[in-house]
Design brief:
Blueprint (H helix, E strand, L loop, with lengths): L1 E2 L2 H13 L3 H5 L2 E6 L5 H10 L3 E4 L16 H9 L5 E4 L2 H4 L4 H12 L12 E6 L2 H7 L13 E4 L6 E6 L10 E2 L2 H5 L9 E4 L2 H4 L10 E6 L2 H7 L15 H14 L4 H8 L10 H8 L3 H14 L6 H9 L5 H14 L4 H17 L6 H13 L2 H4 L8 H10 L6 H4 L1 H7 L4 E2 L5 H17 L4 H10 L3 H8 L5 H4 L8 E4 L7 H10 L2 E9 L15 E3 L1 H8 L7 H19 L5 E4 L22 E3 L4 E4 L11 E5 L6 E5 L19 H4 E9 L6 E4 L3 E3 L4 E7 L7 E4 L2 E4 L1 E3 L2 E5 L6 E9 L2 E10 L8
Parallel strand pairs: 1-6, 2-5, 2-6, 3-4, 4-5, 7-9, 7-10, 8-9, 11-13, 12-14, 12-15, 22-29
Antiparallel strand pairs: 13-20, 15-20, 16-17, 17-19, 18-19, 21-23, 23-27, 24-25, 24-28, 26-27, 28-29
Length: 769
Amino acid sequence: MNVTGFDELAALVNQDKASNVPSATRYPVRFIFVKDVWTVKNIVEMLKQRSAMVVDVSNVFPLNFSSDGFPTASTLLQEISTQDGDLVVVSAGNLIRFWSDDEFGLLVSSLMEFENSLRTPNRRIYVILEGLAERFDAVFWDKRRRHIGIDPRWVLDSPRSTVRVNMLRFDYQINGRNVLPDVKSLAGLWQGPKQNEFICCSQTLRTKTCYCSDDVVSFIDLDTPPEFLQKVMHIDVSCIPYEKGEEGFWTELIDEFRNTKLHSVRTLLEKKYNLNNAEEANWTDIFVSKSKNDYERWVIKNFVVRCTDDDALEFVRLTFGAMRGMSVEEFVEQCWMSPFQETLSKELLAQRFVVLRDIHTLLGKRVPIQIERELEEKLSTGDPSTLAPLVTGITFAERKWLVRNRELVKDLKDKYSALHYYLSDVNVVSDSRFTDKLLAYINEYKRCKLRNTITDELESLLEDLNKDESSFYEWYYSLPTAAKLIGGDICGSLHWVDGLGMEFASLVCKKLEEMGYEAEVHLARANLPSTTGSNMFQGIERIDALDSYIHGKTTYQYPDDLVKELELVADEILPPLASLKKDFCLVSDHGFTVFACNKFQKVHKFKFEKVRDEGRYAELDPGQKVPHDEDVVVYEDPESERKFVLALRHISVSQTPKRESHGGATPEEVLVPVIFARVAKKVEYEVELETPSISVRNRVLRFRLKPEPKAVPEVVIGSNRYEATRTKDWFEVSLKNLRSGDYMAKITVPGFEQEVQFKVKGGIEERGL
């Protein structure tokens, strides 16, 4: 029967208790179905006032020993049958939902078979169930064969209220007022604080089926962490697919959302890494240097792959998508090897270059040795024209390849600036009438060194300059020594770079300009023989990294030694000096030559006893016959009166060197630069955009600087760098990868940088009729 309110229920209890109808006195069990969990308390209090004893199912075996136990119908029946007097059975409803229809039917039918004794005809057993009225009808009441004369089915028609219970079907430890950690707390739900939604973490119920979920207590199965985040915390995590084995990451993600109170993966990442816009973030930097563990990298990887659509992130998306794990090492390896595994577009290769440059140059991440080895193998076996777009110039293997194949690379400055600077022209201050010839020789020597061969042009230039002793001394004495050039106090500090021949002057100057200096090169000569002992700078700091390297080699290795020499000058010797931000001067004692070694020369014409520097010169004993030969020059030291025989060309005066050497009289050994480096004066430029708004149909940003800069400006937008090109009165940058939106561009030249805002406009262009 239906009971319309609590007062009517109380009256019904009194009326039924006083009834003398035979069926009422024979059968004691009455089922009270409630439509609101929280009314159970009131009914229990009302029945306790009428002397009913409470049988709380949440305290019967095995729940009295284990809070996550699971009572059966037989256990509950036994507990009720052992009690005397009026009873009110509570905390059974939510437990019964996990019983099968057969077990539920067994409980109900067994309870209906309870009969009062003649001594206690008015005994009552009230079983309060939250919801379940429809199930009671379907499983038992509508199928009963015997009518007992009374209606034990009391349905309290109070306002319906639904409590939602989210059933966690996965491992996750959670605390809170709305958390039901076990069977006991779920069964006794009615006794707790009034709430509309709960989370049940019972290990026991995780493996059991809920056979009845209704509009009084609604059970929602949450089989995976994403379902918990979406259905309970209302956070959209659809960008992260659920995969077995990643449960630990999901647990950390849930914890982080609960701690931050944020509602999306995007906002979570923006707060964690202090980002204004996750779409425009440098995810390479964040993944490699700022992420702390695999969990953070897991979130980053999935977000970039599935939640971003910026074209500028396409290569990073592809790389993350191809990764199996979360390690930085795998990311770096995948970045390197991806173009060897699949064909990448020009735009993707450009993005790859920026990513790898960020990793290894800006972030200082060393290139793993296994990547060097893999690249060495692939670059040595592939077609050079096909490989050219893939080469970045970052690794040692790539730089060796670039030395051999520089003609195939259009953007050598970007990929291997040290080699580009080494081959560049530089203004040289010199009063000698032989300056042009000497510099032409040095430039040809550098080109030959790159080709690893002696050209006819180099032989011809050397023949002209060092035809004999007379022609040598004519140009040699037309130049000042380094000591004479630095005679006055004209520089803040003086540094002696041992072995820095004239071949490195352009590299030094261009690199210093890049680091904010103005450099002036003077052409000087070394004292003879061209050794450190003959060219000491007393009391001056000596930097011997370059000289020590060539003397430390057993044999000359091409192109390894050239790459290493450029690296020593550009990356080891110059940066500490430039970091002082003070004017300074560089001097050198001598250069060295590669073409005297046995890889190029087999000739050693003389058999002198006092041979020095692997055959580049020899000392004559007093009275020893002076040789007259076009391949050597005799030099007498004016102070010590010692006489030396020096090689004028690339032959040896005794044994043939196996490595680069010095001491002779070739221009590359004798010519040294004196470089005055001054901190560049900071110049302020006025930046003018042609237009602050450019069309998505023609994504070209044009600007100019006043006054006209000497260097070509560089433009940085987000994580992408662009070198501007000159077109008439404007510099311009092609921005093919930018979508419509607002952007900030940083325009830089040495000693100056400024940010400017611009807009890329999309939409359909209107045309006149």
